[in-house]
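Sequence only, no structure available. Ideas?
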Amino acid sequence: MKKFARKNVVILGATGSIGTNTLRVLRKHKSKLKLIGVSAHSKDRMLAAICQEFKVPYASLTDAKTYKRAKLEGLFPSETQLLGGSDALVEISTLVAADIIVLGVVGACGLKPALAAIEMGKEIALANKELLVLGGSFIIDAAKRSGSLLLPTDSEHNAIFQCLEGHSNKDVEKLILTASGGQFRDTPIQKLDSVTPADATKHPNWSMGQKITVDSATMANKGLELFEAHWLFNLEPSRLEVVLHPQSVAHSFVQFIDGSILGQFTPPSMTFAIQHCLLYPHRSASVEPTLDFKQSMQWNFKAPDLARYPCLKLAYESLNNGGNALAIYNAANEIAVERFLIGSINYLDIPRIIEWCLSNDNNSEATSVEALIQVDAYTRKLATAYKAHSV
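Reply:
I predicted one. Tokens follow.
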């Protein structure tokens, strides 16, 4: 193996949960990783503090008003060039000096900068499920053309990536993605419609942003991870399985045709998968302690109840239907979660909105990135227009 060369890192979404955990890895491995670019939407002071700490040469703010105010107030260090406007994410993700781009932004806004970075052959740490959900075929095809390496930072996909290394797809029986089941896995189903946003944003194991914490409760996140696994590992839906594992220690398994099963295990922290991607193919000391098998522990596994998790059921159906269904599922879920968090719909309206938007699909398939973005935009309008049950 070649000696490790220091990597120049760009973080899109530096102020979110992925970004803050990436910064923890960077602090641990200053001699191996250098931060040269960061982005945020509107958290200008937090982004400026990151630039100050890491002496970051390039930063971008995608919210136009925030960008103008930050420039006017001189919030950023003099050595940091502040970018703004609609192309800011593309500019910062295509910096010539950048070696690896951490895609931590949420939603479709990451698609164009991701494709631009991939076309330049840069390594991509995929922390945005929506990129492969929305534009899977375009992302995979672009990576094949350029030789860009796609490194998954989701703990489940990172686990599968590590277990598959050195093995052929033809030897794989199935991939088994684990799920905590979220904070309502034992709540009586008849009580789920009274769940509040405050209830739904408290995960028992993981410290994450509000949206992904709600997605964990509904298991929409596991649906998105099924889509991502389909594209990343080129396996059909029948070879993708989900099991509940409340402890969130076994991050996923690969079952081979000879019956052997490989798994990957770490405590429930995002730093392990992020570090694996940033330092790949090398390894180094972890940010925080790993498991101690001298300590007593118990792990549980069981099949998910699709009546409790209708979002997961809809994900399997979308994956089997193909076409625009994956993009519609993603966009509808994003709007539904937004509406739930502001109190305009009930918790169980989230799967109802997804199902309603999917029922309006004409079963076509977008043939360009622009067409996909139009599907995404139309679905968001449709989900916003949905008449919710009483709240």
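The CA atoms of residues 209 and 276 lie 21 Å apart.
Hope that gets you unstuck.
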